[in-house]
Amino acid sequence: MTAEILIIGLIILFAIKAPIAIAIGVSAMVAIFFQGDFSLMMVVQRMYGGCDSFFLLAVPLFMFTGVLMEAGGISRRIIDFANSLVGWLPGGMAAVAIVSAMFFAGISGAAAADAAAVGSILIPAMKKSGYDSDFAAAVQASGGSIGVIIPPSIPMIIFGFLTGASIGQLFAAGLLPGVLIGVSLIIVSTIISRRRGYSTSTVFSLTEVWRTFKRAILALGAPIIILGGILFGIFTATESAAVAVVYALFVGLFVYRKIKFKDLVPLFREGAVTSAIVMFIIATASVFSWIAAIEDIPARLAGTLLGLTHNPAGLLLLINLVLLIAGTFVETSAALILLVPMIASLLPSLGIDMIQLGAIVVVNLAIGMLTPPMGICLIVSGSISGDSLGAVSRRVLPFLGVLLIDLLIITFYSPLTMWLAKAVAK
Amino acid sequence: MDLKRLSMRINQAVEYLLFTMGLGMALLVAVQVFFRYALNHSIFWSEELARFLLIWLTFLGASVVYYRGVHASVDFFYQRLGVSSRKFLDIVVYLLSLAFFVVMIVYGWQFASFVRLQVSPALYLPKWIPHSIIPLSGAILALHTLAFLWQEIKDLASEGEAS
User: Fold this and answer.
1) pLDDT tens digits along A370-397
2) pTM of the entire structure?
3) CB within 8 Å of chain A, chain B residues 10-39
4) Strand partners for B119
5) Which residues of B touch A238 (CB under 8 A)?
6) What is the pLDDT of residues B12-42, one digit of tens each?
7) Between vectors from CA A375 to CA A372 and to CA A378, what angle results, nearest 5°?
8) Are the beta carbons of B65 and A280 separated by less than 8 Å?
9) How much is the ipTM here?
10) How many whole angstroms separate alpha carbon A124 and alpha carbon B82?
């Protein structure tokens, strides 16, 4: 009975457009009330406990880094550098949008922030150069999804928090898949651009690469601090995030001087508000996953999947399918907290490492950001370009196709994720 | 002062607090790193304080997100409905949310009194202080909800007069 209340309650509340965090909290509260073994004080206790974590401090800290770096004028410098690298390709600006999104992914931990930071400059620029507006939005949306795959990554922090897997290793596991996805997206955008006759935006020159690299070097310093610090075991993820915030403050205030002291109020405030959207979902979902675990729901769902097949490859494909469907309808943090307990319990039957499983989960949910109705990257890019969700969704289809191929490679070729992850000091 | 203005004023104050806590939390962890690596000396209380700030930021931030109406939601079915059904569902969602916020106030209060004699291990801070954020934010969220509901009722009343 409790399981039915949880699941049906959740579906009804989502359908009537209750905020996701509140929908999750209310269905858990009603389930605890009717189950009858526990006081409703558990709702409060689990919400508090759910966000009382030093790991999760990295969530707002990486949000602050992203906000500060963007306001500090680094988007432009990163875009110029990306332009010198890939601007000479057919449809050069589309490739620039993807490469810039990859660099920005090394600073920000969220996909929507990534798509917005680069897209607010490049989508208008692409439109001006004669690219179709819905294509420009689709390219930027698919590039933005890399934001959660290349470290830092807020979904990976949440995955580590839920499973106890090392966040440093998870970050390392995301790096090469992020590069694979970036390159494959560029291939697709180049083929489409050649067919449509979109022009190149520049001629390749090494001196130009060097000149723009020098201008962008401080901007590229943030990913180096974050990645280098974690990969070499100098900092934990949370510590590297705090160092990155201080670095971003220093560059923005004193070197590029784009940020003034009075700007700090809105910047930190908005970073905190964006973090609270994710953190409040984590808080209420902790109540939900607690009562779900009491009722043994994750194990029962896992049993259902095991009833279909015991073949590790088949199970991995099933997990991918479940995650892709969930990512389509549910916000990323919520999908993680609701599904990861079930998926992690299948680990012994899968024959892969928890770290690789984390990378697979996050790539799936990143793809979910490109599918309506809950496709956050589509929504962000579409609102910049002024196109409807439907129009951008159609143009994103070829990119989704290649992302599914990438997902299969990441799922079945473990060195791609594990090679770097194993190199990281634990 | 009427409900709508009270809700707006409180939100303004909370937004300012968010800035302070966000900046404070970032500097706190950064100073902790600096002490550990540069001075080879660990500050024992900074981690605990940073966690308390995170919890406060989560719940106070949630009230700002709620006030602004930007909590993530699924509007797949909602956008296919007519104006009057939307209004009806909005009110249903407000009432359900209000029930949740009331649980936050009542049981949050109980929980804070339950731990009132305990102190935190590093700071020796009475535990009811960090825990009080749940009934406090519950009260702010409930106030915003009442202001939204009041607005809905006034809209309905003025529509009734017009027709």
Assistant:
1) 988 778 888 889 888 888 888 899 999 9
2) 0.90
3) 15-16, 18-19, 21-23, 25-27, 29-30, 32-33, 37
4) B126
5) 29
6) 999 999 999 999 999 999 998 888 888 877 7
7) 95
8) yes
9) 0.93
10) 34
